[in-house]
Amino acid sequence: MKPPSSLDRDPQVSVRLALSSDAAALARLRYEFRAGIAEAAESEAAFVERCTAWMGERLHPRGTWRCWVAESGKAIVGSIWLQLIEKLPNPVGELERHGYISNLYVQPLQRGSGLGSALLAECLREADALGVDAVILWPTPQSRSLYARHGFAVRDDLMERRG
C-alpha cells in the first residue's frame, strides 16, 4: 500500500519546509510535545529560549537538519525533523548517507486528519531525493502503526547503547 501523498483534511492546512524564522514556534511545539510525555526539567520559558536558539542555527538550507511544518492558517500545528548523517566513503554499491527522523508531532486537535502521514511522506521524499541509504527513528507506541504504513519495520541488526 502506498502512503498517502495528499492531505485528507482542511485545505487551509499546508505542509512546507521550515524557515529559521519558525524556530520560536517550533521550540514551543517541541515543549508541548515532550512535556506532554514526561515532567519538564526546566521552565517552559527557559526551554523555549534555549531551543529557539538551537533550532534557529540548524534551519538553514545547507545544514544537516531539515524540518517540515504543518500550518493551519498562520499557526504551526505540526512538525517533523530529519537529520542527515554522513557515512564513511564506501567502495561498494551502497548510498553514503543515513537519515534520522525525530520529533514528528501533530497537535491533538489536528490528529486523525492525515497530517502526520503528510509530514512523514514529505520527509521521506526528501530523504529519497538526497540519496539516503537507511532512515532510523525511535517511535512511541502510538506512532508505530503510522511508521509501518510508510514502510518502516523493526530490525534485528541495529544495536543501541544508552548512558
Overall form: globular
Major β-sheet, in short? 5 strands, mixed
Radius of gyration: 16 Å
* Secondary-structure content class: alpha+beta
Helices, by number, come to 4
**Strand order in space, largest sheet:** 1-2-3-4-5
- Work out the number of β strands: 5
- Poorly predicted runs are 1-7
- Termini separation comes to 38 Å
The share of residues in helices is 25-40%
Q: What is the H-and-E element order? A: EHHEEEHEH
Tell me what portion of residues adopts beta-strand conformation: 15-25%
The overall pLDDT average reads: 90
What does this molecule look like?
This protein is globular. Strand 4, helix 3 and strand 5 form a beta-alpha-beta unit. It is built from 4 helices and 5 strands. Strands 1-2-3-4-5 form a 5-stranded mixed β-sheet, with helices on both faces. It is of the alpha+beta class.
Question: How are the elements arranged and paired?
Answer:
Blueprint lengths: L12 E5 L5 H13 L8 H15 L6 E8 L2 E12 L10 E10 L8 H15 L4 E3 L7 H6 L14
Overview features:
163 residues, alpha+beta, five-stranded mixed sheet, 4 helices, disordered N terminus
Can you describe this structure in just a few lines?
With about 160 residues, the protein is α+β, with helices and mostly antiparallel strands. Helices cover about 30% and strands about 25% of the residues.
